[in-house]
Fold each of these.
Amino acid sequence: MIMVSPVTDETKPSQSRHDGEPDGPAPRRPIADRPTPTRHAADRSAADRALDDSVPTRIVLAMQGVTKAYPNGRMALRDVDLMVPEGDFVFLVGPSGAGKSTLIKLLIRDELPTKGLVLLDGRDLGRLKRRDVPKVRRRIGVVFQDFKLLPNKTVRDNVGFALEVTGTPRRVIVPAVDRVLRVVGLTGQADQLPGQLSGGEQQRTAIARALVHNPRLFIADEPTGNLDPVISWEIIQLLLRINELGVTVLMATHNAEVVTAVRKRVVALENGRIVRDEHGAAYHRED
Amino acid sequence: MAFSLRRAWLGFWKNGLMSLAATATMVLVLVLMSGLIILVIGLHATLDYVQSEVQVVAYMRDAASQQDILALETSLQKMPQVSQVQFVSKAQARQDFLARHPGEADIINTLPDNPLPASLQINLSDPSNYVDVARYLNAQPAVDHVMNIQQTVDQLNSVISVLQAGGTAILIVVGLIVLFIVVNTIRLAVVARADEIEIMRLVGASDAFIRWPFIFEGAMVGLFGAAITIALLFLSQGPVTGFLADYFKVLPIEASTTVGPSIAMVVLGTGVGIGVLGSFLSVRSYLIR
């Protein structure tokens, strides 16, 4: 049923590829130009890091000096710089209220920054015309803690819904849905309703829906918050696998165990500031 | 487009209770509105009828000669204020009286003479010219006295203008209330599917794609509401017209033939218009940002 391989098989090759081995299920770009996982980057600006890599790397997401103040005066983000190159896997960690959700809202352009730039694939989300917002959202896949599935639609229809409401013809929808259901391992449950599925299966349905547009950036906001540890691992493995397929992943989480075990890039927020940005890091600071 | 229509259709039946409430409200409003329109149109018809029938009646002295009366009739016909003049002889007046009051034939018959005077019945082109015509008639030696119908006309006129202004004001107020109710009812349907709208936004559905199903759904509420209202009007038209004709005796309100199709169009237009506008306003708050 679960098509994802055990976590050790998934993470090890991806780790080694950070050191420059171009193997594994061919991603869309050379692997060698990724930042090395051992580099501590907190003391350098994101822009420096991007320029530093001699081979040109496409930057999927760039935030420069982003500040977000809500109308009630609360400062959710202060002067945030963040650069995410294509193919990266980023954990966004920090206590509740640190600004993780706000950061994600800025990325999906649910909110606009008070100051600073948010660039997705080089497009300034702050200056996007209203009618272009949907087009940008189609390049981002988002999943949430609460899955956000439509209870009266089958798994297949929930996933297809994302294409249906963007005006995709039926003959395109059917094979695309079949493909992502294979990726998340839900082919057998395609005709069940969300209520008949386990929490993990529901989250995988949401992941499939987020993937069906072939997004450039995959955002997961506490995707394992409602799931038990074993199921959480399955979801993490699935996200790692999606990352292997070349999709850039940004995952906000409280799950320290997972973050520490996987050893990916960790961006830590506290009081709206990035206090740590390390590759191959643990959930907590290791000095 | 087909997708939006299909979703509107499904949405309408899925939220059956809400759609029922919206449609019922719509029907209530449309019935009220068409009732008011029919009333105002009826009053207009009554006014027209009364005004067309308004006559100045000049009663002739019995002593007046046939020639004098004819001369007066001719001079009246030349007046621009007068549209029509009809001479009613004493004999004709007696016949009319007998026709109207058949029970009193004995009284008339026992009298030695015909007590009823001959008269000129004058239609005015404009009832406000009454005073001129009355003054002219009072100055004529052949005229015994002039009957004053003007008071009645004035009263009717003021009643009608009050009703008309009041009716229009009520229509506007009712229209706004209806729009408010429909907007709120449809908004409940929208709120019930806030999750769906949120998901549509997240996966990058365009505003139009999110809006159209709800617009169609609002249009359906309006369409069904209008259809039910028109059916109700059609069914009640016979009895109501009969009752009105019975009650007012002479009022020539022919709602069935002259008012019917145009009322139906107004009801349909208003229903669909309010439904669409209501949906538009309801969904808008979910799209802005």
Note: Chain A has nine helices and ten strands.
Amino acid sequence: MAPIGTLHYLVVAAALFILGVIGVLTRRNVVIILMSIELILNAVNLNLVAFSRLWGLHGQVFAIFVITDAAAEAAVGLGILIAFFRNKETVNVDEIDLLKW
Amino acid sequence: MQQAVQPGMQPVATTFFFYLLSGLTLLSGVFVIVRKNPVHSALALIFGLLAQAGLYLMLYAPFVAGVQIILYAGGIMVLFLFVIMLVNLERSQREEQFNKQWLVGLLAAIALGGLFIVVYVKGKNLFPYRIAQPVETNNTQQIGVMLYGQYMFAFEIASLLLLVAIIGAVVMAKKRI
């Protein structure tokens, strides 16, 4: 078996990314869509840290900033969800269509 | 592929741990997008984040692994679980789980996967195998030096972003503004 190189980690990150994209495009529940977005961010982080093994610590610093951003975005997204749920009592994206024609 | 032999710890059973950890990460990713109960999805995501922290440790990034466990699995996912608890999702578990355009979404994701496969097969020689084993004894110190030196501006902007996020989340979740 070939020794574990950078490409192995990139393939794992790509697979995680595609799982996250499927979750965002396919599910109806808003909370699970937000969790799939976290999957996508984690795939990107894995990519960054895998490359930082070759090219220095910049990738790891970027990954820390991505984690910080993910925290802020999760807080705001869940706040929006709570505010919306108070009005309409649903968490399905299909039924959030107040602005449709 | 050459690895500089460092005094001290040597990596043990790299292949086994890589396949174990990445298999667990991908399996929990599948559970996140498939389960009906959002609490199950959140627990699967926590497990996947912990497995990914193990992958970071294999990549000689102990500080990022620690940040991942403390912040991501211990902070963000706890926030998710609290919101799942607040938002009463009992009724939505009995409804249809996948939306109307699930087939188009799945095809689009498979097309993206095909693009990734083409990129990785064609560019296999671009990723060098020269992996000098990085020193991990002062990883945290070096990241600290970079954060407070070269990336100081981004650091301050990130703290401003967190302040804005706190204000936004508190205002939106209040009953009366």
Note: The mean pLDDT of chain B is 87.
